[in-house]
Design a protein that fits this description.
By secondary structure, the chain is mostly helical. The chain has one domain. The protein has 8 helices and 3 strands, in the order H-E-E-E-H-H-H-H-H-H-H. Helix 3 runs antiparallel to helix 5, helix 3 crosses helix 7 and helix 5 crosses helix 7. The chain is globular.
Amino acid sequence: MQNKKLYPQSTSGKHRAVKNKLNILLLCLYFFASWIRWGRGEGLPNQAIMIDLPSRRIHFFALQIWSDEIYFITIILILAALGLFIFTSLYGRLWCGYTCPQTVFTDIFLKVEEFFQGDRNSRIKLDESYFNQEKLIKKSLTYLTWILISFVFALSWVSYFYDVFDLYKDVFNFSVSSSAVIWLISLTLTTYLFAGFLREKVCINVSAKIRASRQE
C-alpha cells in the first residue's frame, strides 16, 4: 500500500488558510532573504546573509563569524537540533504539517499538479487513462513547472554561498563555477524527486529511522 500513489483532496477552511499564509511567509523568507543588502565597507560582500567559503567566514547582517570561531556555529547547530527535537516531540504535527520544508514544497507541487491536471478525481482518471495528447500535454506542463520551481529553489540555496547578483549574472552568461553547477543540478534533481514523486515516502522513511534510533 505504501507504494501506491496518493491523491490528496483539495481542502479549504481556517487551518488551510493559515497554512497557505505560513507557506507564503516561509517561501518569501527563503527566496528573498539573500537579496537583502548590508553595507560592510569596501572589499567586503554587501549581502546581508552569506556564507563566504573562499574567505572562510559567515556574514549575518552585522555579525561576522570566522573559521576559527566555528564553535559558535557548533553551539548554534546543537541548540537548533535540541530545539527541533523538543518542538517535534511536543508539537510534531505542527512542524510536519506547517513548517517542514518537505511539506511546504510538496504542497506547492501538489497545487501545480492540481492546476494542470484538475481535482483528485480528474487526476486519478488521467493516470488510469491510456496515453493520448491530452495526457501528454498535462503531464509535460506539470513536470516542466516542477523542474522550474526546483531550479529556482536550487538557485536560492546557492545564493547564500555565492553573491546573488553575481550568481544570476553568471547563470545567464553560462559562466558559473563547476562547484556551483554541481550544487544547482543536485538540488534541482533532489527537489524534483522528493517533492514531486517521493512526497510522503520521505517522511515515512525518516520517521521510521528516528523511531529505530530511539529504540537502540
